[in-house]
TrEMBL record:
The lineage of its organism: Bacteria, Bacillati, Actinomycetota, Actinomycetes, Mycobacteriales. It comes from the Bacteria. Keywords: Membrane, Transmembrane, Transmembrane helix. This is EamA domain-containing protein. The chain crosses the membrane at residues 12-30, 36-56, 63-83, 89-111, 118-135, 147-167, 179-197, 217-238, 250-269, 275-294. Belongs to the EamA transporter family. SUPFAM superfamilies: Multidrug resistance efflux transporter EmrE. It is a multi-pass membrane protein. GO terms for cellular component: membrane.
Length: 324
């Protein structure tokens, strides 16, 4: 499909809204839960019912694991830690969208997708806009280079998301929603082990036993939003779009998320971006528009999956695909 249908564009914009407000929900959760424990908890509450009631999809296992580790485990470990270390909510919603240029570039490397000059210009503009924001943040925060750590962690979260996008596309699930639900089964254990190592066992327990406090109730509401709307609805729709369209066509839509994230953070959290940050955001959104409106020169051929990946036929198909 060379051009996204009106229905798929509406679905993409729906994800933009869900994920824009998702950053507000994350901030509410991080006001109470330790970051790694919160990341583990958001997936753990989904994992048990999924394993009991949802059939595992027909999917290529190695690419499903790339999807789950990139999109689920690493993205949120980096993002939640960055926000805990002082990354503003609205700015996080913008910088995380480095996933879009990363996804396009990975699509060129692994999926044989070809970028048009307009798409290249859009990526350069988006990266330039984010660089402008990073420099402004370091200059006016009073922390110098130390202010770049939360931004760097958020960029790493965007890179992890990009690898997850590629994994979700190569996985070729027979049901994108079921694959998204089963995503929740992979991250809880490594994230909880990370929480035990960094935050200690008492931090998570204390946050659970104090849910009745003034910060606990909003955090519980934030957790509910992140699970039901941010993950199940948002990621389910997103994965379905990635399965039907080239990565270079879908990924730039995520750059619209900061419009919602920055606006919601200003209205609900009182975060006021600087003029330079706003200019950088406009440049980033301009790069997004270039990526969405440009017509890709070609799309890769990915053979349909016929069963779960193993050392036999499916593994061979994957090697052929990546060798092209």
């Amino acid at each position: 499909m060379a051009v996204m249908s009106s229905r798929d564009r509406v679905l993409g914009l729906t994800v933009v809204l869900l994920w824009g407000f998702n950053f507000i929900a994350i901030r509410l959760g991080l006001n109470h839960f330790p970051p790694f424990f919160f990341a583990a908890l958001r997936f753990a509450v989904m994992a048990v019912p999924v394993m009991l009631f949802v059939r595992f999809p027909r999917v290529r296992i190695r690419w499903f694991l790339l999807y789950a580790i990139g999109f689920g485990t690493l993205q949120f470990a980096f993002l939640f830690l960055a926000m805990e270390l002082g990354m503003p909510t609205g700015l996080a919603s913008l910088v995380l969208q480095t996933s879009a240029p990363f996804t396009v570039l990975l699509g060129v490397l692994f999926l044989r997708e070809r970028m048009t000059p307009l798409q290249v210009l859009g990526i350069v503009a988006a990266v330039g806009g984010m660089t402008l924001i990073a420099v402004d943040r370091a200059t006016h925060s009073g922390l110098g280079a130390g202010a770049l750590l939360p931004i760097g962690l958020t960029v790493l979260g965007g890179l992890a998301w990009a690898f997850g996008n590629i994994g979700g596309r190569l996985a070729q699930p027979d049901d994108a929603l079921r694959m998204t639900l089963w995503l929740s089964v992979v991250p809880p254990i490594p994230l909880y082990l990370l929480s035990l190592a960094v935050e200690g066992p008492s931090a998570g327990i204390a946050s659970l036993t104090s849910l009745g406090t003034h910060s606990g109730v909003p955090a519980l509401c934030g957790l509910t939003y992140v699970v039901l709307l941010g993950t199940i609805a948002g990621a389910g729709i997103w994965t379905s779009l990635m399965a039907r369209h080239p990565a270079s066509r879908v990924a730039p839509l995520s750059l619209l998320v900061p419009i919602v994230g920055i606006s919601a953070s200003w209205a609900l959290l009182g975060e006021t971006p600087t003029v330079v940050e706003l200019v950088g955001a406009v440049i980033v959104i301009g790069g997004c528009a270039a990526g969405v409106l440009a017509t890709p020169r070609s799309r890769p051929h990915i053979p349909p999956a016929t069963g779960s990946d193993d050392a036999g036929s499916a593994g061979g198909r994957d090697r052929v695909l990546l060798a092209r």
